[in-house]
Amino acid sequence: MGWFWGSSDEKGTDNSKDAIGKLDPSLRDFLQKESPAKYGPAAPPPATLSGGSEPHTDPPPSPQTTKQPEATETSAGSTPLVPSQSLYADGRYAHLWKTYRPLSDIENSNKTEQDKLLDVLESHKYRKAEIGRAALENCAFEQWEVNDCFRSGGWVSRMTMCRKENHRLDRCYTMQAKFLKALGYLSNFERAPEVDEQIQMHADKLYHQMLDQEAAIERAKAEGLPVPTFEPLLPSSSNRIKPPKTLSASTPAPFKPTLTMDQLSPDIQAQLNKRLEGLTDKERELEEKAIAGEIAAGELLAGRLTDVYKEQERARSERKDQGKQTLGDSIRGLFGF
Predict the structure, then answer these.
(1) pTM for the full predicted model
(2) Contacting residues for 89 by C-beta, under 8 A, at least 6 apart
(3) DSSP β-bridge partners for residue 14
(4) In this predicted model, what pLDDT tens digit does every residue of 299-326 receive, in sequence order?
(5) Contact of 120 with 290, CB cutoff 8 Å
(6) Distance of alpha carbon 190 from its chain centroid, rounded?
């Protein structure tokens, strides 16, 4: 007697367990290709022997036979069929990912020569702006003092527009920015954010160490004691902070400048000397280190611009050899730039 469900065919195969047995062959191939779960026809039930004897069972597979699929998966997993951007790591839609290109590569290939130059200049401006942001972040306590003075300060402070607190904030911001420049915050545009944070924390530590030394000197003068001497805050041998060991493999080495103030043009030297006038010994030393950091950042910027110019010259030479010279290439070759 047949049933509406779970009926068996003449060979004894249960059709309810065969998920794709009656599907179209093309549809069955599509399901086997696109689905991570591989479908197959249901195995026929074991044949029973007459006379009540036990059915014949196959011997268990050997360990070598069991490990073969694992080896196949390992070899297939060593070379992924799809990039990491795919949501399906099992290899589906691999034919669509063959022509995939990251968005950054597409944007860089479509950039003109002027765009590449602007990117270099914008990155340098961004680093200079980051110095102001990091200095203000290190001076958060001084900013809070100014705000608290305007909100709940005495009438004397309000009448003087909180001059004392504003002076501390201005000095903190100026000195923190100088420490950041001296420690090489402007250099290495592709540096890891962890290294930038380490430099920022070290600059804040040096600033408060400088305040402690100044307070100790003033206290010794007030008590009539000998003025204490301290070691330089930024020794010449370690004026660049070293990246942490955990980032040494992925972080570029600090840029070492090759120019000094004496090698600059007279006009620039005159401008830098004005910055050194009227400073104390410690402030002058820090200002010189900050100027050295600015010179190093300028050398790094010039090197990146030189690389862009060389790449442009190579691309123009290739176009000229291939007979695809543009009007702009002809004008540059005519005027020699």
Answers:
(1) 0.59
(2) 80, 82
(3) 8
(4) 888 888 888 888 888 888 888 788 877 7
(5) no
(6) 7
